[in-house]
Design a protein that fits this description.
Layout: E1 10-13, E2 20-22, H1 26-37, H2 43-60, H3 67-85, H4 94-104, E3 107-109, H5 113-122, E4 126-131, H6 137-143, E5 152-155, H7 156-159, H8 166-176, E6 183-187, H9 190-199, E7 203-207, E8 229-231
Parallel strand pairs: 1-4, 1-6, 4-5, 6-7, 7-8
Antiparallel strand pairs: 2-3
Helix pairs in contact: 1-2, 2-3, 3-4
């Protein structure tokens, strides 16, 4: 950040991998399939099946813009899981498997998230979550204790456009009530967050978390190029120039 740049009045923040992570789901899938459905699988089977399910979700989450379309996507995801596992899992009633999948996939806030958000708010900075997510993002942030710490939430499913498109960043700026030159965007994906923010004229910061930070899974493996400011924790935001 240039030393003579005005202090930012808003910080936009990605959700998954930045504010929240996924609680490791592999063993939980093994356990719940046996407890609820009497089906035994191994960890070696669970991992690729869940990876396939998560990949399908990421590619399609923008479609889930209301309760009906969200239910459809969730059933699709459980179908991907069933196809990947095969055997008796395919024979399970889809709604029953979907309930199990939802209980397998849990989200939690990173340990540094709440404190960083409170610290930015104390400085008068507007905070908007900007994420490629379905409409359940609001519920996830609430369950993780972060909803009351931000000023607004923008998800791709509600906007009909996803990062890195500049339009979704502009929607977040409108919600924050600031121009691009007075905002920062923090996220964990170079392609979606860094390039997307730049396309909208917003300065990006890439968060590169340690594997398993807080015991949680992120959505990206980072190999950041050298042309972007990086941080390892949201706590570092307080020490950036013009935010002190």
């Amino acid at each position: 950040m240039a030393a003579d740049r005005c202090p930012p009045r808003a910080v936009l923040l990605d959700a998954l991998g930045t504010l929240v992570g996924i609680e490791p789901p592999w063993q939980r899938l093994v356990d719940l399939l046996e407890q609820r459905h009497g089906i035994r699988i191994t960890l070696e089977q669970a991992v690729p099946a869940l990876v396939a399910e998560m990949d399908h979700y990421r590619r399609n989450c923008q479609r889930a813009h209301d309760a009906a379309s969200l239910a459809t996507l969730r059933d699709e995801c459980s179908g991907v899981l069933a196809d990947a596992l095969g055997g008796r899992v395919i024979e399970l009633e889809r709604s029953s498997l979907t309930r199990t999948l939802l209980d397998v996939l849990g989200f939690a806030a990173y340990p540094d998230a709440a404190g960083a958000l409170r610290g930015l708010r104390e400085r008068g900075v507007r905070l908007v979550v900007l994420s490629n997510w379905d409409i359940s993002l609001h519920d996830v942030l609430g369950a993780c204790g972060l909803a009351e710490l931000v000023d607004g939430v923008i998800c791709s499913a509600e906007q009909g456009v996803a990062k890195p498109a500049p339009e979704i960043f502009r929607a977040a700026l409108r919600l924050a009530g600031v121009p691009a030159e007075l905002a920062l965007h923090v996220g964990d994906s170079y392609a979606e967050d860094v390039l997307g923010a730049r396309s909208a004229g917003i300065e990006p910061i890439l968060i590169v978390r340690a594997p398993g930070d807080g015991g949680l899974l992120s959505s990206h493996e980072q190999h950041p190029p050298g042309d972007v400011r990086t941080i390892e924790s949201l706590g570092e935001l307080a020490g950036l120039p013009n935010l002190r």
